[in-house]
Design a protein that fits this description.
about 40% helix; Arc Repressor Mutant, subunit A; alpha/beta; D-Maltodextrin-Binding Protein, domain 2; single chain; 4-stranded mixed sheet
């Protein structure tokens, strides 16, 4: 994108179309007229020698090339804003913002504790937390809308422009309510088999576990070190059922999880 025709106004118009899905929406978002938005995107397409947007009725759909360009433009915009914020911080004016994607594993204890410690040290930094599944958060992360995502690691990591950092390990366990019939006993497999279990869906990290650098490892068997009776305050209305969950979400024992953040793909 070293063409002199790739200008900031045209890139701004392209981003607005990609985010709103229409020229009218882009006009409302930017304050520019619809003809100006259309002309800017058309000129940018000519400069890139690629079709970036296709019309479908009232909607403007970005092509694969358009999606890739929009992602790169967002990342460039985020990097520029971050650089300007760091300059302001050096001058004593803290304006930095951090957007965090919170996957289910991190919401109960890990992320709240980290946020509290961080804000105690950097009270002027503005944090935004967006909750969702990995599927919902990974594209905003890749596009620069989110700065970091906290949750269970994936192995293998399929996105080449993301990197993962292992923070800690978490081991799922089985939990039952206070006053459970097995309270105060040392149950074996036959004892546990008399009661119903709530398990995670197939394909989720808690159910299948993962290998290598994954932060979650599923228990291969229901051993005594994985069974906690009388530790689950939320299961009181579920009778004598056992619940399968990571220790970090149960409020008991070790915490675990993982982090993924956007990065430039390796050269």
């Amino acid at each position: 994108m070293r063409s002199p025709h790739v200008t900031m106004p045209r890139m701004r118009a392209m981003l607005a179309v990609a985010e709103t899905g229409s020229y009218t929406g882009a006009s409302q978002a930017t304050g520019l007229s619809v003809p100006s938005i259309h002309r800017a995107v058309t000129d940018l397409s000519l400069a890139m020698r690629r079709a970036l947007v296709t019309r479908r009725g009232k909607f403007a759909m970005t092509t694969e090339a358009g999606n890739q360009l929009a992602r790169e433009l967002r990342l460039a915009q985020v990097e520029l804003e971050a650089a300007l914020s760091e300059v302001q911080a050096l001058r004593g004016h803290e304006t930095r913002r951090i957007a965090i994607g919170a996957m289910p594993l991190s919401r109960a204890r890990i992320l709240p504790a980290a946020v509290a410690r961080f804000l105690a040290r950097r009270p002027q930094v503005r944090l935004t937390i967006v909750e969702g599944s990995r599927t919902e958060l990974v594209e905003p992360l890749r596009s620069g809308v989110l700065d970091v995502m906290v949750g269970a690691l994936r192995d293998p990591l399929t996105e080449p422009d993301l990197v993962q950092h292992r923070l800690f390990d978490d081991v799922p366990g089985f939990y039952a309510r206070r006053g459970h019939p097995l309270s105060g006993t040392a149950p074996d497999a036959a004892d546990l088999a008399r009661f119903p279990f709530t398990l995670a869906p197939r394909g989720t990290p808690c159910a299948t576990g993962s290998k290598g650098t994954s932060a979650i490892r599923a228990s291969p068997a229901c051993g005594a070190d994985r069974v906690r009776i009388g530790d689950d305050d939320t299961a009181g209305s579920d009778g004598d059922r056992f619940h399968h969950a990571p220790l970090s979400r149960s409020g008991f024992g070790r915490t675990g999880g993982g982090m993924a953040r956007a990065a430039c793909p390796p050269a």
